[in-house]
Amino acid sequence: IQQVYESLSIRRVFLGFSLLILALVPMIAMMLITQRASIGAIILSVSFWLFLAFIHRPGRAFVPVLLVAFALWAGWDGVSFVAQEASRKTAMVGLNMRWAEAIAVADQLTGSFWTVLFGKGWGATVASPAVGGVIVNFTHSLITTYWLKTGLLGLSLVFLYFCHMGIILLRLLRSQPVLAAALAGPLLIDIFLYASFKSLDFGLVLLLLALWADRVEKLHKNSAYSMQGQSI
Fold it and tell me: Cα 48 from chain centroid?
């Protein structure tokens, strides 16, 4: 979207469609296993980018909007299938069981001041409602996992760390909103909704945020990457 927004040159169009083809690989995987949060993040991100485009350069935004509309029209059967599957999954299992899982973690920690403060250790397990009551050593939220294993003390440190990450994202939003949205989606999903925070991909997202932290001000001064410049 950003490539064709910036220019309709052969190079930009070719690069944009090449990136789109690469993006389709994980997107198709998400759709086949009906990852509702990931699909929703894609929809919100695209809507966010188009909104920014209209705010800053309405004339240029027409081309990306036209391409998105054409893509929806061409792939409407697939879009309808994914929507039906997401609706069916929601009807079967509900929106999610994260709240019930948090209650199960709270039940595990009650009864001891020291357990509430320091948690039950890295080997702690919980009968998670999110997996049908099976006893597992993780939860589907980074927050409840750290709460279970490290208590309020560890959770406070995690909170401070991710507040810092959030500040970096907000600063990056001014200079590189496309990149900020791309990083914010998996970051928020892994913290609150999926157990992917245990995986390498989450570490790579955090690494990218840390690497961009020192470059935010430099990017903001460069009009080529600024919301006030030629691109979004």
Answer: 13
Q: Helices 36-56 and 177-192, interaxial angle, to 10°?
A: 160
Tens digit of each residue's pLDDT (9 = 90 or more) over 122-179: 888 888 887 777 788 888 889 989 999 998 999 999 999 999 888 888 888 877 888 8
Nearest Cα to 187, choosing from 136, 141, 137?
141
Tokens of 169: 């994202």
The CB density around residue 129, as the number of other CB atoms within 10 Å, is: 16
The DSSP 8-state label assigned to residue 135 in this structure reads E
**Residue 137 CB neighbour total at 10 angstroms:** 14
| CA 126 from centroid of its chain's CA atoms | 26
pTM: 0.71
Cα separations in angstroms, 160 against 86, 138, 185, 196, 220: 34, 21, 19, 20, 25
